[in-house]
Amino acid sequence: GPCYRGPMQIQGVLSEILTGGTLDEAAAEEVFEAILSGGVDDAQIGALLALSQSRGATVDVLVGAARVMRR
Q1: Residue pair 36/69 in contact by the 8 Å Cβ criterion
Q2: Which pTM value belongs to this model?
């Protein structure tokens, strides 16, 4: 998957997922870091959750999220 280094480009993440892409572990970590630090607005969080619900979470996303939450 693509790597989103630097400022989180959440619109790019949403576009990637909408077009059938998946997040790798590093990108998932960055997404959850941005969410937990307040860098993602409520509408974007809602869109990410809806897409995740409809597609199912991958192991990479779960591992990335868990790493961020353990910090």
Answers
A1: yes
A2: 0.75
CB burial of residue 25 (10 Å; 0-12, 13-18, 19+)? middle
Q: Are 58 and 27 in contact (CB under 8 A)?
A: no
CB atoms within 10 A of CB 14: 15
Give dist(CA 27, CA 17) in Å, integer. Answer: 12
Supply the DSSP string of 11-60, one letter for each residue.
HHHHHHHHTT----HHHHHHHHHHHHTT-S-HHHHHHHHHHHHHH---HH
Give the model confidence (pLDDT) of 35-54 as tens digits.
Answer: 999 989 999 999 988 988 88
